[in-house]
Design a protein that fits this description.
3-stranded antiparallel beta sheet; 9-stranded mixed beta sheet; disordered N terminus
Length: 304
């Protein structure tokens, strides 16, 4: 399989909105700065040498958690037309308080059909029945392989050749992530790395980002979909990945697993070969080189 996306450096990021059944252009937070960081020689060098280091994101995250950052909240809501009626009202003492805002109860119900895997994040999804090493979108297939994502562990062979869902969260999105089915945690570990942006602008320049960025990996044994490798990918200016679920406890479908502090990031879920298949609309749009905006809790895959 060879999938590519042809766009100029300044072309918009276009995705398929499942709710409206139409293509839309993404309004990118800090678009000019992002393009400078990854599309200019000086920007790429500074990003590689300095901006992708953990201490930069930690420093920026500290500012976002301070009271000084509150002034950004109202302009951000207005600029990106955030549907605040869907969220708890706060109070928000910092921009990070606002950033990790919670949906009101019942706003995003989780699909209850045991044959359907639920969307674990409200995000822009890509889907693959199996990763082909020669694919090119969103990155070279070898950088989305189980071995590249999970590291040199026994788990890599268990998930090799299985289905994959990749959910990219923009800074404007709900930034909590959830369990897609009921089950229990059987392993967890962290892979240290750098913190590059996960925006498509950055992925066009550096296609090893998912295999080299900081990652937190949890292996789940689920009731209906076998084992899942649940991977939270750190990114540029993501101050912290917070786990809110006590790993010694079992979990139910829809339970919150954790959240990202400020910054866009990604959650990747790998499955065992033959256990489940991503939905056709996700596979179709991925083949076309487009992400699909999916609401939290909707069905995204079915048991094989």
């Amino acid at each position: 399989m060879s999938i590519d996306i042809k766009k100029s450096d300044s072309s918009p990021i276009v995705f398929w909105n499942r709710q409206t059944a139409s293509y839309e252009s993404e309004k990118v937070y800090g678009d000019a700065s992002l393009r400078w960081a990854y599309q200019t020689t000086l920007g790429r060098k500074l990003t590689e040498w300095i901006l992708s280091k953990a201490w930069i994101s930690q420093l920026y995250g500290a500012y976002q958690s301070s009271g000084f950052s509150r002034r950004k909240i109202v302009p951000f809501i207005e600029s990106f037309s955030i549907a605040m009626h869907e969220f708890e009202s706060g109070p928000f003492h910092s921009f990070n308080d606002f950033f990790i805002r919670q949906f009101k109860p019942g706003i995003r119900p989780f699909v209850q059909n045991r044959n359907q895997l639920a969307a674990f994040a409200e995000a822009r999804y890509l889907a693959f029945e199996s990763i082909a090493l020669d694919q090119k979108f969103p990155v070279k297939g070898k950088f989305l392989s189980a071995e590249a994502l999970l590291g040199n562990t026994p788990w890599a062979s268990r998930f090799a050749g299985g289905p994959l869902l990749l959910a990219r969260l923009c800074p404007t999105d709900y930034h909590r992530f959830h369990f897609p089915d009921s089950g229990r945690v059987i392993d967890s570990y962290r892979i240290h790395g750098v913190l590059h942006s996960v925006n498509p602008v950055a992925l066009q320049v550096r296609n090893d980002i998912f295999a080299t960025n900081e990652r937190q990996i949890t292996i789940l044994e689920t009731e209906n979909f076998g084992a899942l490798a649940y991977i939270e990918v750190g990114a540029l200016c993501v101050g912290k990945i917070v786990q809110t679920h006590t790993q010694r406890q079992d979990f139910n479908r829809g339970d919150e697993k954790g959240y990202f502090l400020f910054g866009g990031s990604t959650v990747i879920v790998l499955g065992e070969p033959g256990k489940w298949k991503p939905d056709e609309d996700l596979l179709d749009q991925t083949q076309k080189g487009r992400e699909v905006l999916v609401r939290l809790g909707e069905g995204v895959a079915s048991r094989s």
